[in-house]
Amino acid sequence: MLGTFADLTRGKAELLAENALLRQQLIILHRQAKRPTYRKTDRLLLVLLAKMVRTWKQALFLVQPETLLRWHRELFRLFWKRKSKAHARKPKLSPETISLIKEMAANNRLWGAERIRGELLKLDIRVSKRTIQKYMRPIRHKRLSGQTWKTFLRNHAAEIWACDFLQVTDLFFRPLFAFFIVELQSRKVIHVNVTRSPTDLWVAQQLREATPYGEGPKYLIRDNDRKFGPHFARVAITSGIKVLRTPYRTPRANAVCERFLGSVRRECLDHFLIFQEKQLSRLLTAYALYFNQARPHQGRGQRIPDPPVCSVPPPLHQPDPIIAVPVLGGLHHDYQRTA
Fold it and tell me: Where would I find the beta strands (DSSP E) of the chain?
């Protein structure tokens, strides 16, 4: 703003040249597809300058005159709003009451503002509904009609499996596809297999092999890959499994399986050269066995998904020696006590 008022002391020729330069820049700005953004200071400056220029409508290029008039009305309305605001304010709520409102909103997700207001009246605390809503807003960003996806997974983790594909490129730049099925609660790898042509029939056969004798989950999470066709859906229905499709472009909806695929790449595939399908199948089978019976998991409190049956632990004064069993050619080691 200081620079604008300083222009009043400059020469006419210099101002004309600067105006021509600015007009040319505005012409270039009109060619852009993206609309420029206006800050509050920009709007205030344009309104004040338009008031000082008689032909202000002809001098506007970036905005329409109606837009500038609307900004002027908003500024006028804001001015009188602050002018007419009452100086006497009601006493604020005590920090203890505010903390109690937030605690009720966080611990009782089904309670609304009016329900919390009734609970406060039982404690002889009188607070308006609108005030309660103001302090509830940071606690509850959005009122949900049902349980969230995270809550559903936590409540039914023992009955949910998740499946996904992992594409691998061999040494000769040929694609290979690995198919995994993982149990959500224990993180146990239920099934793994490899193929070069993952058809609908092949994927349906993998689900059939993973659920022998009718043993299977209640829900199965999958993405929207076209490899899951009608044959796969038919096997799921006959096995009593309800297939849950994740939304598009939401890998977090199948976070457990996605995390497992990342572990497979970082801890196994990034350290080997893949030549053929059988080699990849042997590697993934060995890694799945290590993943299930030897690898602790942070998400499960450093527990193992499917630990082997252990014998009676040795006495504290006579501990058995510890040995390191190599896994995947020494890439990992499984530390065990000798019997």
Answer: 160-169, 175-183, 189-195, 219-222, 242-245, 322-327, 332-337
Asked if 253 and 279 count as a contact pair (C-beta separation under 8 A), the reply is: no
Q: What is the Cα–Cα distance from 178 to 283, expressed in whole angstroms?
A: 11
| Residue-level pLDDT at 164 | 96
What is the CATH superfamily name and number for domain 152-300? Ribonuclease H-like superfamily/Ribonuclease H (3.30.420.10)
Measure the CA–CA gap between 72 and 78, rounded to whole angstroms: 10
Task: Compute the distance between CA of residue 94 and CA of residue 112 in angstroms, rounded to an integer.
Answer: 21
DSSP state letter for 297? B
210 near 191, Cβ under 8 Å? yes
Q: Please, which residues have CB within 8 angstroms of residue 290's CB and are 6 or more apart in sequence? A: 327, 328, 332, 334
Mean per-residue pLDDT pooled into runs of 10, the chain (339 residues)? 56 57 53 63 71 64 76 82 67 85 85 88 89 86 66 86 95 95 94 96 96 90 94 94 91 91 94 95 96 87 82 59 89 83
CA distance 190 to 178: 13
pTM higher than the cut 0.70:
no
